[in-house]
């Protein structure tokens, strides 16, 4: 299990940009939720729920949904976008629920921010026996040329990469299963700029570097033949899904 600690400054950066995050970040494909949710699950914890991208999809399935999110700015968006969910302040290391409270814990685009040494036993604590832990990440599919160029721009200004996640879990959970889903997110070019602007490392860049990166993204969108002049852009994603059961 990895002992590497997440970047706290970047992890705490999202609250101030919650509206941009909500406007630009993609949702998750229904097929991912189908694969991650165990049969018969009724009470589900969305851990690190952000602005509720996953929370809303879970609520739409008539589940009892608890959403835990540490950022106050994110929770403000979350309570507006997912009014059917029970929204709580907390983290993966300190979940404000009792033992055996939920049938499943889902973590969307967030497990890389946690300390697994503390989060793994805490998630196991709130799960019922044989409960499921599911994690998912939307990763840009850079096999398409313009998306590769977008990734190159982001890497030049500080992104660590666009790699497939390798989540650390371990006992008392079993081995991880991995499943990929390919899909496209339709969005306006201006929202692509917002999408880049919502990344944690961009939020923490010095103002001049941040402005330069976003200008470079606008130039790419305005000149690349695959997207220039298009009213809407099809941004390809691969949703990487991981699931395991509490032993």
Structure in words:
With 247 residues, the protein is an alpha/beta fold. It has a domain at 8-140 and 161-184 and 236-245: Rossmann fold (3-Layer(aba) Sandwich). The chain has helices at 8-11, 18-24, 30-36, 53-59, 72-81, 116-126, 145-156, 189-197, 200-203, 207-223, and strands at residues 43-47, 64-68, 86-88, 102-108, 127-140, 177-187, 233-245. A 7-stranded mixed beta sheet has the order 3-2-1-4-5-7-6. Helix 7 (145-156) runs antiparallel to helix 10. The longest helix has 17 residues, at 207-223. The protein is elongated. The two termini are 17 Å apart. The model is unreliable at 1-16 (pLDDT under 50).
Strand order of the largest sheet: 3-2-1-4-5-7-6
SSE order, one letter for each helix or strand: HHHEHEHEEHEHEHHHE
Helical stretch count? 10
CATH class of the domain at 8-140 and 161-184 and 236-245: Alpha Beta
Radius of gyration: 18 Å
CATH topology of the domain at 8-140 and 161-184 and 236-245: Rossmann fold
Give unreliable regions as ranges: 1-16
Mean pLDDT: 90
Please identify, by name, the CATH architecture of the domain at 8-140 and 161-184 and 236-245.
Answer: 3-Layer(aba) Sandwich
Form type: elongated
Distance between the termini: 17 Å
Largest sheet: 7 strands, mixed
Number of strands: 7
How would you classify the helix and strand content by structural class? alpha/beta
In which range does the helix fraction lie? 25-40%
């Amino acid at each position: 299990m990895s002992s590497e600690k997440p970047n706290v400054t970047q992890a705490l950066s999202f609250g101030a940009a919650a509206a941009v995050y909500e406007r630009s970040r993609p949702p998750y494909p229904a097929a991912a939720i189908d694969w991650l949710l165990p049969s018969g699950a009724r009470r589900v914890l969305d851990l690190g729920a952000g602005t509720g991208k996953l929370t809303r999809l879970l609520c739409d399935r008539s589940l009892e949904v608890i959403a835990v999110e540490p950022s106050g700015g994110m929770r403000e968006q979350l309570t507006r976008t997912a009014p059917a969910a029970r929204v709580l302040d907390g983290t993966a290391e300190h979940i404000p629920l009792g033992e055996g409270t939920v049938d499943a814990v889902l973590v969307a685009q967030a497990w890389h921010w946690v300390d697994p040494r503390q989060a793994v036993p805490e998630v196991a604590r709130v799960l019922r026996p044989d409960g499921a832990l599911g994690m998912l990440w939307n990763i840009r599919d850079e096999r398409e040329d313009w998306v590769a160029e977008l990734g190159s721009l982001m890497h030049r200004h500080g992104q660590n990469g666009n790699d497939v996640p390798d989540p650390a879990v371990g006992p008392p959970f079993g081995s991880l299963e991995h499943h990929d889903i390919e899909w496209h997110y339709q969005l306006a070019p201006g929202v692509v700029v917002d999408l880049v602007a919502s990344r944690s490392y961009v939020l923490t860049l010095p103002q001049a570097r941040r402005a330069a990166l976003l200008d470079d993204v606008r130039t790419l969108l305005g000149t690349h033949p695959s997207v220039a002049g298009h009213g809407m852009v099809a941004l390809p994603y691969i949703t990487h899904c991981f699931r395991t059961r509490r032993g």
